[in-house]
């Protein structure tokens, strides 16, 4: 069977360079101006193409695939406002270091800004949130100007190599003139094999780190989003067995150890309620902060480290370092395992009670989190107890933003669970699409845990014929944006329900009927405990379980939890004399 190509050379070249650079998956949104790209990419034997109509959903779907593959995935659209619908996913990819490749068709320059339909100023449209913009020159079937194709080839190659080596989004804008649908069964161009543009590694001088580590009795390791890096067991052992080290993780850190602090806010929130908050924060304040991974969810740990800054902050990441706490000292551009392999033999364990003192507090938070369950009624918080008791091993879980991910971080992550969330820009707009994209890429059991506003906002994500049978959605419907009842603000004001909380009476059953998704609901903790095990056992078709929780009770239960911890835990114990923490040097 002959392969089908567009007869436009640039469309052929883009497809061949995508294959050269390892792009195997392309998400296409229907359109006319992108017909040359669609014809070539959809018929390429080395490319798996997907058709998703809604461009915003398509881009987040591709983003979920990049999370799974840790490799570039392309998303292709027609000209005009279609391209702008990619922007939310582009910004998420930019701040999450994901190699999303945006390929947009465009009209020729002479048709822009003259009143022609479906035209906007597409070159450099993502300027503030893109690693590279390749603005190609117009090409046609009859073009005999070899310099145009040569220029376009170099630009596409630079864009794709940038996405690969710098791990972020790039944009390729390709103007096409009519006719758009002419085809050929053979390549009309020779696409050269181009050199890799991998950047040279930087010098790594860890002398300041080694000195700071060895002379500090209070070291805090804070791990953000970790999608793909496997941390060597030797590194975990080093960090977990040093008495001067506390390791704080979030569920999206995707590493675990019995000694790691997985419930950051369960410690910091009660401290904020104590009369001697500053004294307790000073006891927790690290002399040295080591961070790796991506962005952090907890606002409380950000506030704490900005107000009680370490003397030194070292960040380990092959690509970038965010000065989140306004005290960054050094960025080591390498992987965590490689870095510690290099410095491990030079590190010493000073005498310290830093871990011992705070670990006693941590263990108490775990104990009283368990006992708090018997103190509360049905609520969002009560649901999460059941969720973590029933999650199967090896399940991949995507958490939507706002309340969903914050509740999850109050419970223990386990190595067997892979957890994801769109924390680059922390928006609610593409959580469902991203989770589905990941599930399609992995073909492994994947569950999305989402709130009602996030789910209904992205409901076009279900307009998708690729959803695996093992994909599941847990929808917490508390009839509004529950996060706003937790945040400061007067909940009794007349405008609050409409303009902040956005109360509603929607439910998901009709959507599930339309998209052939099996629907279950639960309106009590008894029903949740009965339905969740059955929900996870069924894998014959996509499923959604809708948990209806009480809108006016959820925030009270959560905020009372922190009061409960403050009342039952002796935080003052960490202020007892700690002579062993004196500087060994």
Automatic annotation (TrEMBL):
GO terms for molecular function: 2-succinyl-5-enolpyruvyl-6-hydroxy-3-cyclohexene-1-carboxylic-acid synthase activity; magnesium ion binding; manganese ion binding; thiamine pyrophosphate binding. Pathway: Quinol/quinone metabolism; 1,4-dihydroxy-2-naphthoate biosynthesis; 1,4-dihydroxy-2-naphthoate from chorismate: step 2/7; Quinol/quinone metabolism; menaquinone biosynthesis. InterPro entries: MenaQ_synth_MenD, THDP-binding, Thiamin_PyroP_enz_TPP-bd_dom. Binds 1 thiamine pyrophosphate per subunit. Signal peptide: none annotated. It is an enzyme of class 2 (transferase). GO terms for biological process: menaquinone biosynthetic process. The keyword Isomerase does not apply. The keyword Metal-binding applies. Its EC number is 2.2.1.9. Residues 10-113 form the Thiamine pyrophosphate enzyme N-terminal TPP-binding domain. Gene3D superfamilies: 3.40.50.970, TPP-binding domain. Its cofactor is thiamine diphosphate; Mg(2+); Mn(2+). It catalyses: isochorismate + 2-oxoglutarate + H(+) = 5-enolpyruvoyl-6-hydroxy-2-succinyl-cyclohex-3-ene-1-carboxylate + CO2. Keywords: Magnesium, Manganese, Menaquinone biosynthesis, Metal-binding, Thiamine pyrophosphate, Transferase. HAMAP family: MenD. Homodimer. Belongs to the TPP enzyme family. MenD subfamily. Catalyzes the thiamine diphosphate-dependent decarboxylation of 2-oxoglutarate and the subsequent addition of the resulting succinic semialdehyde-thiamine pyrophosphate anion to isochorismate to yield 2-succinyl-5-enolpyruvyl-6-hydroxy-3-cyclohexene-1-carboxylate (SEPHCHC). This is 2-succinyl-5-enolpyruvyl-6-hydroxy-3-cyclohexene-1-carboxylate synthase. It comes from Psychroflexus sediminis. The gene is menD.
């Amino acid at each position: 069977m002959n392969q089908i190509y567009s007869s436009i050379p640039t469309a052929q070249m883009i497809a061949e360079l995508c294959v050269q650079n390892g792009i195997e998956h392309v998400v296409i949104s229907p359109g006319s101006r992108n017909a040359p790209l669609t014809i070539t990419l959809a018929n390429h034997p080395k490319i798996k193409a997907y058709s998703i109509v809604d461009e915003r959903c398509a881009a987040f779907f591709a983003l979920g695939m990049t999370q799974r593959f840790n490799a570039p995935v392309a998303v292709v659209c027609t000209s005009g406002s279609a391209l702008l619908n990619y922007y939310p996913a582009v910004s998420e990819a930019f701040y999450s270091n994901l190699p999303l490749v945006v390929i947009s068709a465009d009209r020729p320059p002479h048709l822009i800004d003259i009143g022609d339909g479906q035209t906007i100023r597409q070159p450099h449209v993502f300027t503030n949130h893109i690693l590279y913009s390749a603005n190609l020159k117009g090409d046609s079937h009859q073009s005999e100007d070899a310099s145009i194709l040569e220029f376009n080839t170099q630009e596409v190659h630079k864009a794709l190599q940038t996405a690969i080596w710098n791990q972020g989004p790039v944009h390729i804008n390709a103007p096409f003139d009519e006719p758009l649908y002419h085809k050929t069964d053979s390549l009309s161009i020779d696409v050269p094999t181009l050199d890799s543009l991998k950047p040279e590694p930087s010098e790594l001088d860890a002398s300041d780190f080694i000195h700071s580590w060895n002379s500090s009795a209070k070291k805090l390791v804070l791990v953000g989003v970790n999608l793909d890096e496997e941390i060597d067991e030797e590194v975990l052992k080093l960090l977990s067995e040093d008495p001067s080290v506390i390791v704080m993780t979030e569920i999206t850190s995707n590493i675990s150890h019995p000694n790691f602090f997985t419930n950051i806010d369960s410690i910091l929130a009660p401290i904020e309620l104590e009369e001697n908050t500053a004294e307790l924060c000073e006891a927790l304040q690290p002399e040295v902060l080591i961070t790796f991974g991506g962005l952090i969810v907890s606002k409380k740990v950000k506030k704490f480290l900005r107000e009680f800054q370490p003397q030194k902050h070292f960040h380990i990441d092959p690509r970038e370092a965010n000065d989140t706490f306004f005290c960054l000292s050094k960025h080591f551009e390498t992987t965590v395992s490689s870095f510690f392999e290099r410095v491990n033999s030079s590190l010493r364990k000073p005498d310290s009670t830093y871990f011992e003192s705070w670990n006693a507090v941590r263990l108490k938070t775990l104990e009283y989190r368990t006992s708090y369950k018997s103190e509360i009624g049905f609520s969002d918080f009560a649901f999460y107890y059941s969720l973590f008791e029933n999650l199967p091993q090896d399940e991949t879980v995507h958490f939507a933003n706002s309340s969903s991910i914050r509740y999850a971080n109050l419970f223990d992550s386990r190595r067997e669970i892979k957890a994801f969330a769109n924390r680059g820009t922390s928006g609610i707009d593409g959580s469902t699409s991203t989770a589905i994209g990941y599930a399609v890429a992995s073909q492994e059991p994947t569950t999305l845990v989402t709130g009602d506003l996030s789910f209904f906002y992205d409901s076009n994500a279900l307009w998708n014929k690729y959803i695996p049978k093992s994909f599941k959605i847990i929808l917490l419907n508390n009839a509004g944006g529950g996060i706003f009842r937790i945040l400061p603000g007067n909940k009794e004001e007349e405008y609050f329900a409409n303009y902040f909380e956005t109360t509603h009476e929607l439910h998901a059953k009709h959507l599930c009927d339309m998209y052939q998704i099996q629907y279950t609901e639960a309106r009590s903790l008894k029903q949740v405990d009965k339905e969740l095990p059955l929900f996870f056992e069924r894998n014959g078709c996509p499923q959604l379980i809708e948990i209806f929780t009480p809108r006016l009770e959820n925030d009270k239960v959560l905020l009372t939890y922190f009061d409960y911890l403050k009342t039952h835990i002796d935080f003052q114990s960490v202020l007892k004399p700690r002579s062993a923490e004196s500087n060994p040097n």
